[in-house]
């Protein structure tokens, strides 16, 4: 059974006003002091209004789901002790002036990328799925490229930006594309070629290090995993568990195709960018590009196609029924973007949107 881990970035906000607060350093320090061994799962991120956590790798999705809930509650507790709250929002609905962290790496980014760094207060969810080798990992990355935009649509949770409705369901993903190394990738064909491309990118001097290789899916630097990086941080804690389930199914399905000698789809990077843009714009409310035909289809039909594509792998891992239930619940309730817009229609207040999202983050 492949193990799965999740990283989530949470927005720190004032519990009364909903405005972002730059307190990640204090929260990380407090969490470290509070832990038994002086270590904790929480880290600072690019901006001081962001708090990141990472789960341990798990084989069972129920265990992973409980750990996601535990980490969110712990983050909320540490933040609350400093008069702050956490919200699983992929952008701040309210206007914000982001504070770039003081460490040397983040300051290099601010100097080299200018406004793209200063405005990059966006919060994602990354899923790590174990692989046996770099060769298997690259084979998986090559074969799951067309399906990643569907995960982006399922996770969409960033309709507001600087106090206004953007018209997108995932505006985070559009802001993220400002990084020079972000987005879908070509078919690499081998681990050797993957590492050659990364080396060529580093040799240009445009990016600082391997951590800045922001592919939609990449080989993790420190773990034997494929890291899938297309998702917004999700409002409800059951959604990242669903994403992790589908991601493991995608990795296993892609690995089986590779072992069976099936070649990856030949979709161009240009078409994959169009699919990602459409997913960001539409979320689950309109048409998506079908990963096989590359033609528009209703979002629900495309999501069903993803379930069908990974169905055998999910059945073998015992996750098929729970994945079907999770997808049905998400489609019925709506993703985070749909929930945020409904809250805005009901209350007329972005502050109330944030307050309610703080509550839902810990459910």
Automatic annotation (TrEMBL):
One function term, GO molecular function aspect: glutamate-cysteine ligase activity
Pfam families in alphabetical order: GCS2
UniProtKB keywords: ATP-binding, Ligase, Nucleotide-binding
InterPro entries: GCL_type2/YbdK_subfam (IPR050141), GCS2 (IPR006336), Gln_synth/guanido_kin_cat_dom (IPR014746), YbdK (IPR011793)
Catalytic activity: L-cysteine + L-glutamate + ATP = gamma-L-glutamyl-L-cysteine + ADP + phosphate + H(+)
Enzyme class name: ligase
BP GO terms, sorted: modified amino acid biosynthetic process
UniProt source species: Streptomyces cupreus
Identification of the protein by name: Putative glutamate--cysteine ligase 2
């Amino acid at each position: 059974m492949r193990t799965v881990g999740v990283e989530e970035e949470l927005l720190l906000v004032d519990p009364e006003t909903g405005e972002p607060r730059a307190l990640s350093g204090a929260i990380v320090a407090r969490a470290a002091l509070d832990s038994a061994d002086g270590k904790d799962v929480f880290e600072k991120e690019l901006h001081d209004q962001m708090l990141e956590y990472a789960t341990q790798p798990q084989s069972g999705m129920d265990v992973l789901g409980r750990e996601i809930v535990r980490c969110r509650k712990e983050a909320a507790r540490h933040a609350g002790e400093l008069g702050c709250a956490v919200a699983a929002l992929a952008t701040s609905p309210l206007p914000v002036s982001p504070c770039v962290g003081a460490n040397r790496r983040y300051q290099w980014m601010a100097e080299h990328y200018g406004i793209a760094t200063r405005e990059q207060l966006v919060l994602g969810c990354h899923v790590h799925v174990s692989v046996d080798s770099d060769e298997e990992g690259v084979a998986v990355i090559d074969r799951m490229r067309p399906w990643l935009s569907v995960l982006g649509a399922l996770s969409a949770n960033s309709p507001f930006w600087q106090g206004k409705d953007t018209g997108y369901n995932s505006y985070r993903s559009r802001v993220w594309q400002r990084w020079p190394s972000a987005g879908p990738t070509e078919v690499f064909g081998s681990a050797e070629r993957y590492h050659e491309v990364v080396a060529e990118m580093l040799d240009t001097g445009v990016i600082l290090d391997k951590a800045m290789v922001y592919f939609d899916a990449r080989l993790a630097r420190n773990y034997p995993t494929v890291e899938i990086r297309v998702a917004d941080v999700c409002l409800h804690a059951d959604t990242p568990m669903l994403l992790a389930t589908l991601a493991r199914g995608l990795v296993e399905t892609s690995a089986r195709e590779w072992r069976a000698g099936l070649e990856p789809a030949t979709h161009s990077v240009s078409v994959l960018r169009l699919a990602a843009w459409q997913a960001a714009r539409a979320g689950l409310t309109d048409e998506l590009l079908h990963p096989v035909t590359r033609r528009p289809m209703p979002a629900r039909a495309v999501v069903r196609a993803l379930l069908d594509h990974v169905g055998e792998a999910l059945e073998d891992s015992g996750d098929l029924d729970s994945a079907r239930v999770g997808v049905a619940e998400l489609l019925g309730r709506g993703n985070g973007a749909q929930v945020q817009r409904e809250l805005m229609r009901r209350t007329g207040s972005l502050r109330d949107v944030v307050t309610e999202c703080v509550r839902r983050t810990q459910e």
